Description:
By secondary structure, this protein is an alpha+beta fold. The protein has one domain (8-102): Roll (2,3-Dihydroxybiphenyl 1,2-Dioxygenase, domain 1). The chain has helices spanning 8-18, 60-69; strands at residues 23-25, 31-33, 54-56, 74-81, 84-90, 96-102. The radius of gyration is 15 Å and the shape is globular.
Amino acid sequence: MIIFSRDAEADQAFLRDVLGCPNVDAGGGRLIFKLPPAEVAVHPTDGADIHELYLMCDDIDRTMAELRERGVEFVAPVSEQPWGALTALNLPGGGRLALYEPRHETAYDLPEDLS
Length: 115
């Protein structure tokens, strides 16, 4: 995954300092971040191809409180969806990240099929 940003240094600092993501310098100050386990979903569309980034958490209220203590401002109230509780925050560079607590079975901890 690559996030294209109008202020890459600010977004890197946010991921490193606010979200606490471990990282390595890939050269020239370009940081590569370790992320928690991830999932990918593919949804149909008749419009333009878009991609969204959703961070998952176990407890949305607790996670939001922890992030607020680090200065994060949420730009959407928590909404209850059939698949989970959802909110969003803006990155310093202008991008948006969604944060959600899944209410569905998750795939990130499924064993790999090595057959």
